[in-house]
Automatic annotation (TrEMBL):
NCBIfam families linked to this entry: cyclopro_CfaB
InterPro entries: CFA/CMAS, CfaB-like, CMAS, DUF7884, SAM-dependent_MTases_sf
SUPFAM superfamilies attached to this UniProt entry: S-adenosyl-L-methionine-dependent methyltransferases
Protein name: Putative fatty acid methyltransferase
The family this protein is said to belong to: Belongs to the CFA/CMAS family.
Residues in DUF7884 domain copies: 12-79
Keywords recorded for this protein, A-Z: Lipid metabolism, Methyltransferase, S-adenosyl-L-methionine, Transferase
EC number in record: 2.1.1.-
Enzyme category, top tier: transferase
GO molecular function, one term: methyltransferase activity
Listed Pfam families: CMAS (PF02353), DUF7884 (PF25371)
Active-site residues from the entry: C358
GO biological process: lipid biosynthetic process; methylation
Amino acid sequence: MLAQLPPALQNLHLPLRLKLWDGNELDLGNDPRVTIVVKDPSLVSDFTHPSLGLLGSAFVEGRLELEGSISEVVRVCDELTKALVDEDDDNLPVRTEHDKATDAASISYHYDLSNDFYRLWLDREMVYSCAYFKTGNETLDQAQQDKFHHLCRKLRLKPGEYLLDVGCGWGGLSRFAASEYGVKVFGITLSREQLALAQERVRADGLQDRVELQLLDYRDLPKDGRFDKVVSVGMFEHVGHANLELYAKCLFDAVKEGALVMNHGITAKHTDGRPVGRGAGDFIDRYVFPNGELPHLSMITGFISEAGLEVVDVESLRLHYAKTLEHWSARLEEKLDVAAAMVPEQALRIFRLYLAGCAYAFSKGWINLHQILAVKPHADGSHHLPLTRDDLYR
């Protein structure tokens, strides 16, 4: 059966071993650190064009096994596909229509999997977004607390203000802003599992009078300018390119003049927002975040500006997210036996590849993450932001 493997594959020099269902093995280099165990004979012909999407799908579906450190598996598979697969430069960006029912189903698919499963590998507050590492040596718990502070300081939160938290997740930031900065918070999510635990934690902290969390679509937010500040973390990736204009308008309508709006989320490498190449983006869309679409920084800032908000500060946290995902991946790998009892086998396979793969993608610059701070100016164009960033770092 080894003779059926494409010649291009046999001429590579990678620390990779191919093991076939019939017991035959082929080392593609000295000292292989990763083994691909091909269980389905029909996969052999696909190795003429083994994209990341193909390999990922075959692993998720149990048609092949991947042996070795999951981070090393991702690195070696990237080298393998890079040698044999085009970069898909003509891969057009997706423009999916996002209605409320579709978005609710997509969110439920990913976030309603199991609170206990997420608790295994997230920090103690279950913050499912990029942490902030001041030195790089912080624990995940500390880095997520520092991220909360970083966001709240950028928003210049003051006691008594009314904060809108769009995509509040398990409520960590909402509770933090209320307890540490003295604000009143209204948070929304489309995940019933997240909401139930978030509300439980609000009650446990005795914050019911300051934190209100609801199951609500961003399109149903009040448009009366009642909020002083808005924070949206890890949410606009689910909005879709077709709805970014509406999303930005909803944020504009929700806040009063002089208000600050913080949008923290993943952005695309290419200005047209095309998915990551070699099938990696397709894998994420099919198995991890259905209907998720990443806009380029220029795309989302364009819609924010057209809505009437003024972009006043942009910060890339790409390398922070690479480190965050490395923490998450390592924590999950340490508890695979426990995780296997909590979620279906296919789900665990998906998350193993997703966490390690995204850590690699951020480290390589395939995708980015930006914090975009905007202000809704007064009618005369004025606002009350400091002239410098000095106050953020005192």
